[in-house]
Amino acid sequence: MSIPFIDKLVDERFLTHRLRSTSTAGLLGTALVGVLFLYRLYFEHATDWYLFAILLLVVLTKFALMAYYFLTD
Length: 73
Known about the structure:
The protein is mostly helical. 84% of the residues lie in helices and 0% in strands. The protein has a domain at 36-73.
């Protein structure tokens, strides 16, 4: 089933741009969490474990998906 106006709005270029922007946003968000964690650790001498948990979750998810796509491709 095809919806005529959706086909005109959503094409391969749109999906490619969405993929790139989502990837870039995820990387920048991860870098921001990492910098904030290190800032709090080095300058304020406080350990925010929730920031570390978010950073670890993103890194583990990235590696798990890389391994999955490598093994199933």
